[in-house]
Amino acid sequence: MAPFPIFLNPDKYAVRIPVKKIVADRKVSEEGVERYKRLYKDKVDVGAIIVVRHPKKDLYAVLDGHHRFWALKELGAKTIKCAVIQDYYGLTFLMAKRGFYQPAPEFTKHLRVPILSWGEGLLTYLEAFKKDPFSMLGERLQRKRKKKGREKEPSEDDLI
After folding, report:
1. Which residue spans within 66-140 are E strands per DSSP?
2. How many C-beta atoms lie closer than 10 Å to residue 32's C-beta?
3. CB count, 10 Å around CB of 16?
4. Among 30, 46, 136, 137, which residue is least crowded by beta carbons within 10 Å?
5. Per DSSP, what are the bridge partners of residue 33?
6. 103-117 confidence digits (pLDDT tens)
7. Three-class SS of residue 65?
8. How wide is the angle at C-alpha 98 spanned by C-alphas 93 and 104, nearest 5°?
């Protein structure tokens, strides 16, 4: 299967693969592995990992899902839900096996996690704004109302 549909919806293409047939770079943060172990223990579905198949052997390397892989392995899983990308030349498999696609834990901790957290905060703000834009504008709206000498409830025109 070509990689693009798999990356967009890995669960749609997922199959169960024995853990002993999967290799993954160990360049992961223990905090991330422990977080996924807690999620798995709580029966949270965190999705399929994405693996690339060796062109000649029945062996797979993790492309996306290193923390999930190690969490499941440490929990004693025998098989893992994986979406498989075919590698006809072996280069993608070799690069995945050697950790080329797995960022350093420092990158994840100091850059990727804060960016994801900021994005979640922004989505929360936008959802609240969508429900009640007047209260989200706070002081700006109050200043505009006082400037115009209005005491009534603000209208949508006040937002402009």
Report:
1. 79-86
2. 18
3. 11
4. 30
5. none
6. 666 666 666 666 667
7. coil
8. 125
